[in-house]
């Protein structure tokens, strides 16, 4: 399975921005669909965004649409999540996910990283 390492989390004030990165191992990275999930304290894991292997197709949860942007750089084996206009309710551990298809990524049954903490202060 592909190994994923997230970075870029931190503490930011309401309305601020962060860019999360997910570095993937494996020579076949470009064949994987990628995505991001998050888990807030006391809540279930929530789908955030996904991107196809080509980078052409992207998908977002309604709660983040218009504020977050997912992108990928296959030459660097890296997927990004740009977080803008952050709100306290965005506070969560953000996890990178990979799978052979978007369906597998969104189902949560693909590979996972260790997560990176995003905290948005009031």
Descriptive notes:
This protein is mostly beta strands. Helix content is 5%, strand content 48%. Strands 2, 4, 5, 6, 9, 10 and 11 form a 7-stranded mixed β-sheet that branches. A hairpin with a 6-residue loop joins strand 5 and strand 6. It starts with a strand and ends with a strand. The mean pLDDT is 93.
Question: What's the layout of helices and strands?
Answer:
Blueprint: E1 4-7, E2 10-13, E3 18-24, E4 33-39, E5 46-51, E6 58-60, E7 68-73, E8 78-83, E9 92-99, H1 102-107, E10 111-112, E11 116-121
Parallel strand pairs: 2-11
Antiparallel strand pairs: 1-3, 3-8, 4-5, 4-9, 5-6, 7-8, 9-10, 9-11
What descriptive keywords fit this protein?
122 residues, mainly beta, four-stranded antiparallel sheet
| Unreliable residue runs | none
Can you write the helix and strand succession as a string?
EEEEEEEEEHEE
Tell me the Rg in angstroms: 13 Å
Q: Which band does the percent of strand residues land in?
A: over 45%
Amount of helix: under 10%
Distance N to C terminus: 39 Å
Sheet/helix structural class: mainly beta
Largest sheet: 7 strands, mixed
Mean pLDDT: 93
The number of helical segments is 1
């Amino acid at each position: 399975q592909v190994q994923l390492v997230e970075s870029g989390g931190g503490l930011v004030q309401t309305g601020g921005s962060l860019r999360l990165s997910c570095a993937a191992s494996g020579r076949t990275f470009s064949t994987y669909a990628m995505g991001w999930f998050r888990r807030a304290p006391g809540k279930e894991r929530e789908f955030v965004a996904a991107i196809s292997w080509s980078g052409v197709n992207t998908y977002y949860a309604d709660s983040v649409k218009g504020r977050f942007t997912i992108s990928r750089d296959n030459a660097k084996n890296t997927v990004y999540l740009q977080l803008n206009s952050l709100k306290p309710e965005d506070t969560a551990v953000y996890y990178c996910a990979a799978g052979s298809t978007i369906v597998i990524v969104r189902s949560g049954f693909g590979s996972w990283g260790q997560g990176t903490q995003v905290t948005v202060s009031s």
